[in-house]
Specification:
This protein has about 230 residues and is an alpha/beta fold. It has helices spanning about 15-25, 35-45, 65-70, 85-95, 110-125, 155-165, 175-180, 190-205; strands at about 5-10, 30-35, 50-55, 80, 100-105, 130-135, 135-140, 145, 150, 170-175, 215-220, 220-225.
Length: about 230
């Protein structure tokens, strides 16, 4: 059965939009298109897409700025599709809140597979939308966390890291597993990067960051949520 899901493409290249329209339509998706960042932001609000494919090289607004604006309210998956391939651009996009990052030229089969995974993961969180751990409440549907009923100011990456650990309460997750799940396969050796994010997160969720009770270190292996 074909999917009725609506996907918004924000890309200034007509040929890319045409290719994506043909490919995605053939796989049952409905398509909306925007050629500028301003138009894309407007259409994201009106067309209610289940997923957004976003180019970074837009003519009016840099794609990273469009991503930042979208993440102020848009909670569904965003996949970056760009000619920019530097590690700095990829890390920035993922940190701001992109779910995935593909570089042009791309393989349509791989893009379709990543779209399916992103939509499936997005829809799969509805069964258990809120995780409660004493004073800490993690809302998986709305991508928010509260401590003592006060909203925590978490970046998209910090929330993804916290949610991953919390959903695996009591289980030791290796550095490589966490890096792969939150940042992608290209970052599985960046353990120092992970340590920095854990330290930042502890300052926000722990009563005493120096004596963590939720984000526990398993020396030489990884991290565990809870006792």
């Amino acid at each position: 059965m074909l999917s009725p899901d609506n996907i918004l493409i924000i890309d200034d290249e007509h040929q890319i939009r045409r290719l994506l329209e043909i490919t995605l339509s053939a796989n049952g998706y409905k398509i909306s298109e925007a050629s500028t960042g301003k138009e894309g932001l407007s259409m994201a609000a009106t067309s209610q897409p289940v997923l957004i494919i976003l180019d970074l090289g837009l003519p009016d607004i840099d794609g990273l700025d469009v991503l930042k604006k979208l993440r102020e309210w848009y909670l569904k998956p965003i996949i970056i599709l760009s000619v920019r391939s530097s590690e700095e651009d990829i890390i920035k996009a993922l940190d701001i809140g992109a779910n995935d990052y593909l570089t042009k030229p791309f393989r349509t089969g791989e893009l379709l597979a990543r779209i399916r995974v992103a939509i499936r993961q997005s829809q799969g969180t509805s069964e258990n939308p809120v995780l409660n751990f004493g004073s800490l409440a993690i809302d998986l549907s709305n991508h928010t966390a509260r401590k003592n009923n006060e909203l925590l100011k978490l970046t998209s990456t910090e929330f993804s890291l916290l949610a991953l650990l919390a959903k695996n309460e009591g289980r030791v997750l290796t550095h490589q597993y966490i890096l792969k799940e939150v940042w992608g396969m290209g970052y599985i050796e960046q353990t120092q990067y992970l340590r920095v994010f854990i330290a930042q997160l502890r300052k926000k969720v722990e009563d005493d960051p120096a004596k963590p009770k939720m984000l526990n270190t398993e020396s030489g292996i990884g991290y565990r949520f809870g006792s």
